Amino acid sequence: MRLTVAQANDLAIAAMRAIGYAQDEAFATADHLVDAALRGVTFGSLPRILAIAERFEKTGDRRTGLKIVRETPVSALLDGGDHVGYFVARRATEIAIEKAKQSGMSMVGAFNTWYTGLFAYYMEMATREGLVAFAAGNGPAIVAPEGATEARLGTNPIAFGFPALDDPVIWDIGTCAIMHGELLLHQRLGEPLPEGVAIDIKGEPTRDPAAALAGAIKAWGGHKGSGLSIVVQLLGAMCGGPVISPGMSDMAYFVLVMDPELLIGDGTFPERAAELSASIRSARPEPGRPGVRMPFDRSAAERRRRMAEGEIDVPDIVHSGLMHLVDRGRL
Predict the structure, then answer these.
(1) 331 has a pLDDT exceeding 80
(2) d(CA 258, CA 268)
């Protein structure tokens, strides 16, 4: 299904409103998910609203007020009140940016939230302000540490963002072989998983999404990725929630924002980042490859292309599910 960007945004807001979200929370979620679609990250876009609705059906509405529970001039800790992470992490990042502008650097944590989405979105919020940022988020045990056949870690995304003269340099990864949202989309579409990304409950390799959900996702990058995932889990634990989240709830988000002017003081950091980007892109590519890219190059190019076209792709089954939510909300 092809939708205009405006249609996709309106549908996302309507679906979020239909399942009980206020306008500001629906807007924040829709903006994040449509941006993911523009960047070509289908699993992190509109299908997530269906997962949000399914989570509500399982747990009911447990939301309380989003509030700051601890604060200093350079830090804050938020109780997310069981609000969806697209809203909580956006607010946490806004606070971190405000504090970094005042004090040069800041760190903000949030707990009692879930489904935080693509961390590149939050990194870009900071880079637009000329700031450097780092974020990490932990979650429930659905990833097996290297060498294990049982889940003990979250998908545990980690991201860095640096302002540059053109596109920012943003590196955003999950420390797992496949993201949970991507696994859910494979299940929703009835498609097998790629080889080597998951194991079943007995520890055997599987391409069946349902078997993987009962078993575990594998860590990305062997022992190195597994170690990085452990670091992310501990950064999340620093935010005051559980060390390992109890299912799809009470996850943590941590963001550190820095003004490069604290160190160099001459306003040249974006030029320095652009210099490195130009150097890497000019490197001789391997045979058969079109060229060397910087992190976020593909995302930025895809977003420009789709914005110029004015349309995005939404899987038919996802579109039908969203329309069902909207229609059900009208009853």
Answers:
(1) no
(2) 15
